[in-house]
Amino acid sequence: MRHGTFPNTRCAKFSPDGRFVATGSADTSIKLFEVSKIKQTLLPDAKDGPVRSVLKTYYDHTQPINDLDFHPQGTILVSGAKDQTIRFFDVSKANAKRSYRLIQDTHNVRSVSFHPSGDFLLAEFLQQKLLKVRVSLICLLFCVYNG
């Protein structure tokens, strides 16, 4: 990941354990990288040939990605985008290519952030409103609280 390699990248986040980094782009893609493989690509002599640091690419959004965050347990990645959606991805599933949950709104999602406990997700929208979502670890349940 040398400078200039990803000119469309709008945001990036490390997983809580530091093993992964996710990037969100203007081309609507989310890429998941393995940090150890990124380090290998920076070495001058790659003995085993080219190293592929991208583990997965998701294309669920229809507009540029504005923000990303990992759940504190590290297996869930959440994204917010200009397409007025918040999407949840299970990065622990090797074959998962799409989000497994979606929250649709009527405004551009500017930022998303998990509480350190993982029990809540905050989202900020273009119209300056906040959405507070209660997260159940068994299955994600969404309860919107006003105020």
Explain the overall architecture.
With 147 residues, the chain is mainly β. It has one domain (9-134): YVTN repeat-like/Quinoprotein amine dehydrogenase (Methylamine Dehydrogenase, Chain H). Helices cover 5% and strands 41% of the residues. It contains one helix and eleven strands, in the order βββαββββββββ. It has one helix at residues 35-41; strands spanning 9-14, 20-25, 30-34, 54-58, 65-70, 76-81, 85-90, 101-104, 109-114, 120-125, 130-134. Strands 1-2-3-4 form a four-stranded antiparallel β-sheet. Strands 5-6-7-8 form a four-stranded antiparallel β-sheet, with no helix packed on it. A three-stranded antiparallel β-sheet has the order 9-10-11, with no helix packed on it. A hairpin with a 5-residue loop joins strand 5 (65-70) and strand 6 (76-81). The N and C termini lie far apart (42 Å). Mean pLDDT is 79; it is low at 136-147.
Concise overview:
This protein has 147 residues and is mainly beta.
Task: Label this structure with key terms.
mainly beta, globular, Methylamine Dehydrogenase, Chain H, 4-stranded antiparallel β-sheet, disordered C terminus
